[in-house]
Amino acid sequence: MENNTILSLPRIGEKAPAFKAVTTQGEINFPEQYSGNWVILFSHPADFTPVCTSEFMTFASMEEQFEKANCKLVGLSVDGLYSHIAWLRTIKEKIEYKGMKNIEVKFPLIEDITMEVAKKYGMIQPGESNTKAVRAVFIIDPKGIVRAMIYYPLSLGRNFDELYRALIALKTSDEFGVATPADWRPGDDVIISPAGSCAAAKNRMDGKESGLECKDWFFCTKKIAKEEVLKKVIKQ
Q: What domain range is 193 assigned to?
């Protein structure tokens, strides 16, 4: 029988759906209490599963790195609070992975037995499972606006270097009013949006706009030093 479940999906550029929830670090009011911070809200299918364990260890080991970028981490699964606590304790006491051990997860992990939050964020995808959240990632800015979304199936672990890269790229776009090209990292050339008038386009092509290198009117790049980028987007 065809599944006609209608998914609720947040949209980029809109306010992140609000909720209150119990977590391993106490109650949270999301995203209100994170105002002024970037946030990565992410879901995992279930506690005491191997792929999820590897991901939580990786996120926990990178928490300080995200913190320096003014970004808080918030996890979620449809398990209960006591399951969360037992799982995180087991990770700290027993699990070693890629040289990581004695890893303590300090960021909040949301209890979502009713799947209320998971459904608000489109984390329950019937094609994968009706009872487990897929590996969804939401990058939310300091104003509570959804800026990026990435969904992974249950079987695929996330690339955490890419999640961090995406965060830094979004912050760079905001700080400098630019776009970032494929595979961009701090120090690489950035993209300057196409000119809004014929005269502006001609100035660009004639080299009259300082610091731009234009291959054509619609493709102009500019150099921003890595140090300048990091000074703006990372706490020194």
A: 177-233
